[in-house]
Amino acid sequence: MASAQVIPRRATDPPVVFHWVPFVGSAIPYGNDPVKFLFECREKYGNVFTMILLGKRMTIALGAKGNNFILGGKSMVFNAADAYQPFTTPVFGKDVVYDAPNDKFMDQKKFVKAGLSITNLRAYVRMIEEEVADYLAKDSAFQSSPSSTSKWDGQFDVLRAMQEITILTAARTLQGKEVRDNLDKGYAALYADLDGGFTPIHMMFPYLPLESSRKRDRAQKLMQKFYVDIIRKRTASGELGSGKQENLEDGYDMLSTLLGQQYRDGQELKEYEIANLMIVMLMGGQHTSSGTSAWALLHLANNPDVAEALYKEQVQHFGTVHADGKVEFRSMTFEEVRALPLMDRVLRETLRIHPPFHCILRYVREDTAVSPELTSESYVVPKGHYVMASPIISQMDPLIWDSPEKWDPSRWTDPEGVAAEAYKVYLDENGEKIDYGFGKVSKGSDSPYQPFGAGRHRCIGEQYAYMQLGTILAVMVRNFELWIDRVPEIDYHTMIALPKEPRMISYRRR
Ligand code: HEM
Predict the structure, then answer these.
(1) What is the bridge-based pairing of β-strands 56-61 and 78-79?
(2) Is 368 within a domain?
(3) What is the pLDDT of residues 29-83, one digit of tens each?
(4) In a domain, 8, yes or no
(5) Is position 32 within any domain?
(6) What residue's CA is closest to ligand 1, atom 40?
(7) Residue 292: C-alpha distances to residues 37, 71, 360, 395, 421 (Å)
(8) Which of 93, 140, 176, 336 has the fewest CB atoms found within 10 Å of its own CB?
(9) What total number of domains does the chain contain?
């Protein structure tokens, strides 16, 4: 077979990764293990190169400087909506996020951020503790009696358990009581159909006439109607309006905040837009959080000394030890969950090795010179390419981190260490915060550590995610000792990097 044309078209084009089959390009090695593939490309081509991925030309810029070049770039030049809109609009619905003009989207981010206020997050910790405890009391995997032949009481599939716990806890908190009450009555099935239409295949070929796409479109309509009906019911009964229900649980949900919000041009946020934003919350928080808690538990189960230290941290802060040795735990507050040093390190380290998004895309609207910080070559990324940032590469780079493959929460303890420095830059503590239209945030795009993205598209769910993950892990370690002999390999074929099967963790009740 003749080799594909891999000579750049113009002298200023970045080098093109060698591939045998035109159109398919590097899809197979990249899809199977993007981290291995991108590190190999860095060896051959440097920090900036172009790969062909199913007909699309993707220019990758690696390292902290590469992240900054792409995520710190101007939206008129590197555009997220052009890259994401075709496959996200069928799932999220019309006129929100990437289907809305940028200033409207930034307003929508501001509205959602208002719903993720500290007041609301404070109310959620107890609700999440209750949901997890209730799940553990009912789910069949956690009902085994102690065994006389094994140290362990039973086993659970960690990804299944975390997916179920994540949707239960998100439903109870952000999504509100109507969603929580309907979870077993059709909502979960609609979610599954929506999710089935949100895969790498749909991302690469949004217009293929697949059965999964038909189901997704039907689910989007029904899900939107479900929320619009809730809004109408709440409005009719006078139950809604932000702040009106301060003392009731459902006064803290996202719908309460979104109702009555106005865009900067004075237009009201419409019912169907609120419904679609609720779907965005659902899709934005589900796999990211469930994947992260699953990975954290797998590493804890594989590092029982760290799990034991995490348990002791819980006992020290929230436990009362009775004469018979039994420990009784009290509820945590939001501030307490966020101030647990080891919990924080466990989450940071898990997100370093397993950032849910291993690549972040933008569409190139104008020929753009590559910053000289990145390469000594005078490359220009041509209009019509996509640019791709891959923070996982800088988070796993052996040139930056000691033994980057090793899950080691203690790397975050040294205040002068690489990890602490990367985190400081990510939070941009001393730098000027920037307002992209949804409130001031740290830019953070210069850091080699950026699991929540950076710049104008930076995640607004970070505080919620830390609170949700910290609370779930706390309840798990309070209840169980965990064990797995090896951490599963990473499956990169899903939208979010997830643990391959088998991923059964053994547990023993404390
Ligand atoms: C462990 C949990 C999470 C991780 C690691 C994560 C990661 C990210 C990343 C990397 C981005 C940037 C995407 C880009 O630049 O293209 C992002 C954006 C975003 N995330 Fe999250 N996320 C998490 C949880 C959540 C949750 C719980 C929510 C909602 C409640 C959420 C809502 C959003 C939204 C609305 C954006 C903005 C997208 C944009 O401006 O284009 N995320 N997230």
Answers:
(1) unpaired
(2) no
(3) 999 999 999 999 999 999 999 999 999 999 999 999 999 999 988 888 999 999 9
(4) no
(5) no
(6) 457
(7) 23, 22, 18, 15, 23
(8) 140
(9) 1
